[in-house]
Design brief:
The protein is of the alpha+beta class and about 500 residues long. The protein has a domain at about 85-115 and about 345-380. It contains 13 helices and seven strands. The strands form two sheets. Strands 1, 2, 3, 4 and 7 form a five-stranded antiparallel sheet that branches. A two-stranded antiparallel ribbon has the order 5-6.
């Protein structure tokens, strides 16, 4: 929270740095209130993420470039608000000019032009509006950067959870494998030795009986028999041999799932390395620098209704503020076009030094002359001034149309984000219930399998469903936070 207030304070200082003020402080207060409400939904678990957001804001080169663009535009304000440079004209006579006042030695003129009343203030106001537009571009870039950081952070959390869940399921399947092997061995040694000619080879998935078990699995039955029996062997109809073969096919099914999970685990590890690189580069850090993730990403809710969110987006979205600032700048440009059609005034002085002139043995003249001067420009070519006014009107109309289109796009994005948020919330509750039922079903099936040795295929099927529900639950929670992050970016 301390960092959040720091960011708000910095943003407020940036806004006050310009020459223009926002029409009402209510907008800023509303924005701060909504952001506080959004962050308070899961503040305790977002401390690491908040620290990374601050680091990204300080180090990301693209964001710093946008802010320097804003600062560069601000530096134009003192340029356009200054008077034109005075003009100094100095002329020297190679031979003194004989005049009645004496011999003129030089002609020195100093002239300062003054724009029409209010022109400098209007120019500063226009550049200030454009600087405000630049600042909103920076704000939009910051929001997009924060959204990217949050998105990759949540994706990394999802990957970590998927890796953890996959590893837990690997351990569970390995336990099932030991149980199935134990039942196979016990059933294989429980009958007479004459009924178990291939029990040793069945214990290995690479043996001959292993291949026959795979054939039985593909045919869909646990009662499959090998097509070739050793000579002299006797197979009973319902003895331990049939039970042993069924159990071995169960072992092979487990090993198939184990291989698939191990492959998925390697894929997740590769994706984790890629996301780590993307995340660190957003923060302008070394590619393999460690990232601390939250232990548990809990469910989050937005304390405002949908219409209040939409109203806040319409008021606080940086791109809409940028277009408002541009429209105000073009309004000022129309005033500038009118003032450009007014004359400029010039005030100066003309200094002429004289030396005494000999006439009839007497010094004549020699007194320097100072002459005040006034000049006026005459803007008689009205066509260019009218064209400037029309140009500003067309630009203002274009900005108004762009804003209308931007509002439509933001409403669509808001609608999509709210839909995704509500859908994720529903799925979270669904997958919680489904996972709970699947766990109970697995326990019942395992109890039944431990007693009768039947139904192991159903155990694996429900265990796979449980794995899917666990992964989908993590994905739904992440999607929920993604949707909230998108709404925050829109605001």
């Amino acid at each position: 929270m301390k960092t959040l207030f720091k960011v708000i304070k910095i943003s407020t200082e940036f806004l006050s740095f310009g020459t223009t003020k926002y029409t009402s402080s209510f907008r800023l207060l509303t924005s701060i209130f909504i952001i506080l409400q959004l962050l308070q939904t899961n503040l305790s678990q977002a401390q690491n993420l908040e620290r990374y957001l601050v680091e990204a804001g300080e180090k990301n080169p693209e964001l710093k470039a946008y802010f320097n663009d804003y600062l560069a535009t601000m530096e134009q304000i003192p340029q356009v608000g200054a008077l034109p440079d005075p003009e100094l004209t100095v002329g020297f006579f190679l031979q003194p000019m004989e005049r009645f006042m004496g011999n003129q030695l030089a002609d020195i003129r100093l002239m300062q032009m003054f724009p029409w009343f209010g022109m400098l203030r209007t120019q500063k106001d226009e550049v200030g509006k454009m600087a405000s537009a630049r600042y909103e571009v920076f704000e939009n870039a910051k929001n997009n950067l924060y959204y990217q950081v949050k998105s990759i952070y949540y994706e990394m959390y999802q990957l970590e959870e998927e890796i953890r869940i996959t590893e837990e399921n690997l351990k569970i399947l390995q336990t099932y494998e030991r149980i199935a092997l134990s039942r196979f061995k016990s059933s294989g040694t429980g009958g007479s030795s004459s009924n178990m000619p291939s029990s040793g080879s069945m214990d290995s998935p690479t043996g001959t009986s292993s291949g026959s078990s795979m054939g039985g699995m593909s045919s869909g039955g646990n009662n499959a028999r090998p097509s070739v029996k050793p000579a002299g062997s006797v197979v009973s109809d319902g003895g331990s041999m049939a039970s042993g073969k069924s159990t071995m096919s169960d072992v092979l099914r487990i090993r198939i799932q184990l291989k698939e999970l191990e492959s998925n685990l390697l894929t997740l590890q590769d994706q984790k390395a890629l996301l780590l690189t993307e995340f660190n580069k957003l923060l302008n850090r070394e590619m393999e620098e460690a990232v601390i993730l939250t232990d548990t990403l809990r469910e989050a809710t937005i304390p405002l209704d949908k219409i209040a969110l939409l109203d806040s987006i319409r008021i606080n979205n940086p791109m809409l503020k940028m277009l408002d600032a541009e429209a105000e700048a073009y309004e000022v440009q129309k005033e500038m076009a009118r003032l450009n059609g007014r004359p400029m005034l010039g005030i100066g002085v003309n200094y002429m030094p004289f030396s005494a002139r000999q006439e009839n043995g007497m010094d004549m003249g020699g007194k320097d002359m100072i002459m005040p001067m006034v000049s006026v420009t005459i803007p008689i070519w009205r066509k260019k001034y009218n064209a400037r006014h029309k140009e500003a009107e067309y630009n203002q109309l274009a900005v108004s149309q762009r804003k209308e289109d931007m509002v439509n796009q933001l409403e669509v994005e808001w609608s999509r984000a709210v839909r995704d948020l509500e859908d994720a919330s529903r799925k979270i509750q669904l997958y919680k219930d489904q996972a709970k039922l699947a766990e109970q079903t697995v326990q019942l099936l395992m109890t039944s399998y431990s007693g009768s040795g039947q139904g192991f295929e159903e155990v694996l099927k429900v265990q796979q469903q449980l794995l899917d529900y666990q992964l989908k639950l993590v994905e739904a929670i992440v999607n929920q936070h993604m949707s909230i992050a998108q709404i925050e970016a829109l605001m």
